[in-house]
Specification:
The protein is an alpha+beta fold. It has one domain. Helices cover 33% and strands 15% of the residues. It is elongated and about 65 Å long.
């Protein structure tokens, strides 16, 4: 359980750290180096993840991640199994790689010419307290 977009990079020695990654910033009346790819991003995700490492331990955090991946697989498999007139109701946009984030990405099958779209489905699901992101974007959008 971490915040999406949280990533860690750890350098063993400063000599391997590019000068483009480390910038000097004014901090609490002095100067400090900030090692970041984008200084404007909040660090809360890293703090949450670090807290969970401390609280759960490495094996506990690993079990948590394995469980999240199993949940994502169950949702993905469920969406794949939904058919309408013998055709898949959803097109899967992710390949279900097990070495990635536990995220499922799908869209309604445009071939079915349904009377509702992804956003309508998102609103209907939220009425039952299931919150999923839905975007009015197609593959031809930039």
């Amino acid at each position: 359980e971490s915040v999406c977009g949280t990533g860690w990079i750890i350098w063993r020695e400063r000599k391997n750290l590019s000068e483009h990654v480390a910038i000097s910033v004014s901090y609490l009346g002095g100067r400090a180096d900030s090692f970041t790819l984008n200084f404007s991003r909040p660090a809360s995700g890293v703090y949450v993840q670090y807290y969970k490492f401390l609280r759960l331990g490495m094996m506990g955090y690993r079990r948590l991640c394995i469980n999240m991946m199993k949940n994502a697989k169950a949702i993905r498999d469920g969406l794949k199994s939904m058919k309408l007139h013998g055709k898949p109701r959803f097109l899967m946009l992710d390949d279900g790689d097990e070495k990635c984030l536990p995220v499922v990405t799908a869209m309604l099958n445009p071939e079915l010419k349904l009377a509702y779209d992804d956003i309508d489905l998102q609103h209907a699901m939220s009425e039952s307290h299931w919150y999923v992101s839905g975007y009015k974007m197609r593959f031809n959008d930039p």
